[in-house]
């Protein structure tokens, strides 16, 4: 194990996310609300200085629900390039995007030459998971209308789970949008559908410091508070309508809680005949190849960049 990976594991262990997500529900949601207010302030991209620093050129209002406006933030040129990346960030279903998400998007833009779009999307428990997916579908449709030759859908953590759900939701629509050219999925998860998945997740909890089993178990209830009629695929990833799905690339660590959903996705994608590649690395971190922080992530990070360029 490289020194840099050991250092990242130590940092992960000291991270407060799992501690926050392990709190009792009311305490957790109260603290998350405070964090999100701070993140919204830090990522106020209507501030010209921040726009210049983060090379953000436009923001696209694409949806409104209740009193909240949702935007897609763009990192790229003023005019649209040939290709675009739609980046669904890892929210754990409750967090606003942190500055690291925009830093990652800037690196993707530099490495690929593609415009990168980050949708700000609704969160639990103020919205149901059906609301979240519907808004992300609206973002996909909005970017599709901009005239790009190719669109790549890139999801990290929760964002990877939502990327799958959004394309399944697209298959349910009478008027669907064209599928993206390629689907990049880093650590998609979900609520355990059976005892095996639950045991696999429990086995990983000592090594994965980025989330908590308590939070995983609460997702099902939080996701349906505002709308109890939520299909299985939005909770457990079962019964996926994968018709027309693009070629898909999965990346997992075998030491993360999300890895408990690996067999579920592998079985369904292969049975549907989707061109799919699964990469599982031993001993690395959750979302390990979303960044190029340590040598064990270099190969897969570089491979993802190539997948987003061709």
Question: Can you tell me about this structure?
Answer:
There is one protein chain. This protein is α/β, with parallel strands linked by helices and 310 residues long. 42% of the residues lie in helices and 17% in strands. The protein has eleven helices and eight strands. It has an eight-stranded mixed β-sheet with strand order 1-2-4-3-5-6-7-8, sandwiched between helices. Helix 7 links the parallel strand 5 and strand 6. Helix 6 crosses helix 7. The longest helix is centred in the first third of the chain and has 18 residues. It starts with a helix and ends with a helix. The mean pLDDT is 90.
List keywords for this structure.
310 residues, alpha/beta, 11 helices
Short description:
With 310 residues, this protein is α/β, with parallel strands linked by helices.
Strands side by side in the biggest sheet: 1-2-4-3-5-6-7-8
Overall pLDDT: 90
Strand fraction equals: 15-25%
Unreliably modeled segments: none
Q: Can you tell me the overall shape?
A: globular
- How many alpha or pi helices? 11
* Secondary-structure content class: alpha/beta
Q: Give the SSE order as H and E letters.
A: HHHHEEEHEHEHEHHEHEH
How would a textbook summarize the main sheet? 8 strands, mixed
How far the N terminus sits from the C terminus, by CA atoms, comes to: 32 Å
Which oligomerization state do the chains in this entry correspond to? single chain
Count of DSSP strands: 8
């Amino acid at each position: 194990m490289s020194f840099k990976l050991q250092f990242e594991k130590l940092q992960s262990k000291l991270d407060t996310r799992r501690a926050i997500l392990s709190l009792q529900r009311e305490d957790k949601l109260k603290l998350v609300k405070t964090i999100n207010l701070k993140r919204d302030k830090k990522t106020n991209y209507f501030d010209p200085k921040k726009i210049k620093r983060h090379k953000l050129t436009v923001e696209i209002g694409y949806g409104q629900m209740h009193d909240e406006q949702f935007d897609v933030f763009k990192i790229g040129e003023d005019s649209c390039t040939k290709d675009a990346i739609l980046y669904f960030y890892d929210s754990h279903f409750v967090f606003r995007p942190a500055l690291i998400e925009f830093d990652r998007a800037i690196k993707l833009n530099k490495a690929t030459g593609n415009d990168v779009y980050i949708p700000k999307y609704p969160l639990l428990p103020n919205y149901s998971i059906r609301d979240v997916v519907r808004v992300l579908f609206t973002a996909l449709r909005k970017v599709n209308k901009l005239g790009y030759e190719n669109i790549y859908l890139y999801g990290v953590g929760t964002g990877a789970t939502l990327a799958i759900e959004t394309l399944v939701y697209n298959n349910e629509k009478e008027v669907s949008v064209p599928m993206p050219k390629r689907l990049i999925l880093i650590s998609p998860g979900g609520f355990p559908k059976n005892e095996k998945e639950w045991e696999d997740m429990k086995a990983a909890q000592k090594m994965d410091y980025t989330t908590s089993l308590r939070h995983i178990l609460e997702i099902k209830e939080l996701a349906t508070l505002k709308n109890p009629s939520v299909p299985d695929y939005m909770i457990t990833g079962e019964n996926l309508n994968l018709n027309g799905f693009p070629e898909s690339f999965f990346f997992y660590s075998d030491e993360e809680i999300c890895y408990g959903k690996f067999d579920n996705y592998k079985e369904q994608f292969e049975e549907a005949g989707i061109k799919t590649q699964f990469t599982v690395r031993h001993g690395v971190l959750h979302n390990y190849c979303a960044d190029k922080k340590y040598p064990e992530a270099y190969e897969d990070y570089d491979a993802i960049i190539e997948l987003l360029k061709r």
